[in-house]
Amino acid sequence: MSTALDLLNASSLPRLALVSHLQIAGQGGDEGEGGSLPLLWPELERALPDRGLPKGVVELACAKGLGGGTRVALAAVRGGQRQGGWCAWLDPEGSLYAPGVAKAEVDLQRLLVVRPPRKDLAAVAVKLVQSSAFDVIVIDYTPPALVKLESAHASRALSPSLSRSRSVRPEVLVRKLALLAEAGGSTVILLTDASEPRPLPWQVALRIELSRSPGALTVKVVKDRFCRLAMSKVAWPACSARTA
Fold first, then answer.
1. What string of DSSP letters covers 116-135?
2. Where are the strands (E) in 31-96, listed by range?
3. pLDDT by residue (tens digit) across 135-185?
4. What CATH architecture does domain 34-240 belong to?
5. Cβ-based neighbour number of residue 71 at 10 Å
6. Pick from 141, 166, 205, 207: CA 20 to 30 A from residue 228's CA?
7. Whole-structure pTM value
8. Is residue 235 within 8 Å of residue 218, measured between CB atoms?
9. Minimal CA–CA distance to 100: which of 240, 237, 213?
10. What is the mean pLDDT of residues 114-141?
């Protein structure tokens, strides 16, 4: 009996060549303002500059990962699936909880979950985005581990020019993901820790800081490509109040 979530490890990546041939174009599903990714969460959409998430890299930053980023990412996955697309989730720690995913009304049959070792996460992330097979790719992103490349193969997966280097700065990797995502028309969501220091800015289309408050989610847009910054409180949907 197959599992609810389709799990792959880093050694299974060649099979993505088959996924890239899937017909994943939407069948005229709902879109956000200006072609943005809908979240099917009206109050949250109204709190965002484009009434949804843009193409490119979107960062959802929560203190210690406890601010509701997973719930917002699941809403994005559901929105991508509603448009007829496939989605992927890089979950190196194995923390994605299948019953919670199903409760968020995500189609488990159209969600690819990859659980690579942290040391391989950078190469796996680039390969997934480069495949153009997925409308939404969620990455549980921890910069110190993500950018440490243990092999020349992993370095070459990022860029031929980096093949002699055994590590890549986080901002370089994020820029690579942004270029690939914008070229392929996908949305890459980075789940990050807002409390971690950052010496240089990242090339993201949108950075949202999330925090919990009684009965609500505080949404703070701190970076937007058109400088449309905002902060608001959003009520939790009834079905997701307990989802991280």
1. --GGGHHHHHHHHHHTT--S
2. 56-62, 87-90
3. 999 999 887 543 444 444 445 555 554 444 446 788 999 999 999 999 999
4. 3-Layer(aba) Sandwich (3.40)
5. 22
6. 141
7. 0.80
8. no
9. 240
10. 94
